[in-house]
Amino acid sequence: MEALKQTRHIGFWTGIVFFALMAVLAIALESSSGGNTWLRTLNNIGIFTALALSLNIILGQTGLFNMGHIAFFALGAYVTAVLNSVLGWPIIYTLPFAACITALFAFVVALPVIHLRGDYLLVVTIGISEILRIAFVNDIFGLTQGPNGITGIQRIELFGYRFMSQFAQFYLIWGFVAITACLFYFLEHSRFGRALNYIKYDEVAASGNGVNIVRYKLIAFALGAFWAGMVGTIYAPFIRTISPGLFEFKESVLLFAIVILAGGGNIVGIVLASFLLVGMRDVLTMFGDWSMLLFGLMMVVIMIIRPQGIMKPRRRQYNAGHLVGKFPSGIGKKAGLSAGNQAEVVE
Amino acid sequence: MSLLSLQNVIKKFGGLTAVNDVSFTVDEQSVVGLIGPNGAGKTTVFNLITGNYAPLSGTVTFRGQVINGQKPYKIVQQGIARTFQNIRLFQQMSLLENVLAGRHCRMHAGLFASMFCLPWQQREEKSAVERAMQELAFVGLDAGYDNEAGNLSYGNQRLLEIARALATDPKLIILDEPAGGMNDQETAALTELIAAIQKRGITVLLIEHDMNLVMNICQKLVVLEYGAKIAEGTPEEIKSNPKVIEAYLGTSDDE
Q1: Which ranges does the record mark as transmembrane (chain A) (predicted)?
Q2: Coil, strand or helix at A318
Q3: CB of A331 within 8 Å of any CB in chain B?
Q4: Are strands A161-162 and A157-158 parallel, antiparallel or unpaired?
Q5: What residues form DSSP beta bridges with B26?
Q6: How many CB atoms lie within 10 A of CB A142?
Q7: What sign does the CA torsion over B132, B138, B143, B147 have?
Q8: Nearest to B89 by CA among B102, B72, B79, B78
Q9: pLDDT in tens, B147-179
């Protein structure tokens, strides 16, 4: 593929190896006793990985502090649940609706607040997600059935195959994660992905180079929400009963922590951080009342050991070495200024 | 006809009149210097041209079209690129990616094309990288294309900003104190570079305090003081203009 020739995609191949290993691991777990619990944990991690990848577009790539991402996930799940349980649609047909309605919602609520910076945006997004959750609790339009939520959501059926067991859903969820990671990886290595980074690092310079800031920020928000809506569609039939209690503020915080811990929008970092935080939370439940205390303690330890995040933000690699020295210089034969042609490392 | 012209442009910040009724023109393929003491409103004039500020009154005309009040990203598309006085590079990104930022306004790939790696998007990306490398080579920084911009020396950061601006295919490039923080040797190289930019058919408008540089390369100078234009002309005319001498050196009470 041209994309692979053009740049050195190490991360891309790392991803392929990782997902292949995951597929093998699932088979091993399926055939072992007690493997089902682990598959369930892995599926949970998968859901959160996909969500964190979608938040990464907004927070990691564009630098917009969205602390209410769980609202988009919730909306997607509720749209699917309502269409399935009230109107009887097969789950798979609800996917585009859940995604588009969520994206539209994100676009409309982001439009008036998109110019807010840093923590101001953070506070507004918390507000948006809480308003939505409370609307679900209050059985808005008589559709969401209040605090008890919607029950009896069907399983996903694809080409006549019904994804029932944890094992089957594992492939569905992690397949979705793999596709997401792949598409977002390509997006990151493009004009679009760079524009998001330019906005994150310096809005004035980005605008001065022709980046339409407001447009890109809104698209980033809508895209992140679109994806979270789709994850919602996968999640609803996975747990079969959805209620407002699943979409509390603390879940947004967890997602936020995953993206920050990943380090500068790094996709590999997102997967690792999801395993670490979501996996840790699931495993720690065996300690009962102590679990949250231990979770907090571990967060503190991580922030002391790796304050910059698990991974370094990876600079994109461009295959431009063959172009060095090919073009004429405007300052005679001398390359660069007195400092020489190499960058000086000032640390 | 002139490439850029400002007519009676006024900009106020609260009670302060930063730019007071300034008019001047920039001819195609010339190098024009905007000089004046600190706080004379030179950078504000630049910000009015590039759309960072909108003038209170007056017009900015570029290639026969009124451009004031437009957003910066639109003005870049029309062919005005700039560098910043306090360097605004994307410090954590590579040299090449910084220059690619300049290509942004000439590329078309959107969300869908990028996500699915459409063939035309790949071709566009490839030619953008080539073009960016060309501009890096033009300022002599191509060998270090993969380095982080923040690690460059001060002088080279200024050059990188120029490369980024050139990558936007400008008709007019606006340089805000390009020699700021450069030593003599670096300034000499910069002088050569500005001449080379002019040779490419690009018009240059610059703010600079280094009078040697300004007198050497500018065909025309515009002098500002307290937001108002006090003189305009060739370097020779400006050198002997009593108002300019007064603005720069002050007058003695004895006279």
Answers
A1: 12-29, 41-59, 71-89, 95-114, 170-187, 218-241, 253-277, 283-305
A2: coil
A3: yes
A4: antiparallel
A5: B4
A6: 8
A7: negative
A8: B102
A9: 999 999 988 999 999 999 999 999 999 999 999
Q: Looking at chain B, which residues constitute the CATH 3.40.50.300 domain(s)?
A: 1-79+170-255
From the list B101, B110, B129, which residue is nearest A320 (CB)?
B129
A333 Cβ under 8 Å from any chain B Cβ: no
pLDDT at residue A8, rounded to an integer = 53
Confidence of residue A9 (pLDDT cuts 50, 70, 90): low
ipTM of the complex: 0.91
Distance in angstroms (rounded) separating the CA atoms of residues A267 and A288: 32
Rounded-to-integer distance, Cα B135 and Cα A326, Å = 11
Q: Do A209 and B71 touch (CB under 8 A)?
A: no
The topology under which CATH files domain B1-79+170-255 is Rossmann fold (3.40.50)
Residue range A215-230, pLDDT digits in tens = 999 999 999 999 999 9
Residues B1, B46, B149, CA angle at the centre, nearest 5°? 120
CA distance A66 to A64: 6
Alpha carbon distances (Å) from A271 to A56, A73, A148, A179, B84:
11, 18, 32, 13, 38
Domains and CATH numbers, chain A: 2-321 (1.10.3470)
In DSSP terms, which residues pair with B31 in a beta bridge? B204
Are A335 and B143 inside 8 Å of each other by CB? yes
Nearest chain B alpha carbon to A7: B126
Closest Cβ–Cβ partner in B97, B151, B197 for A316: B97
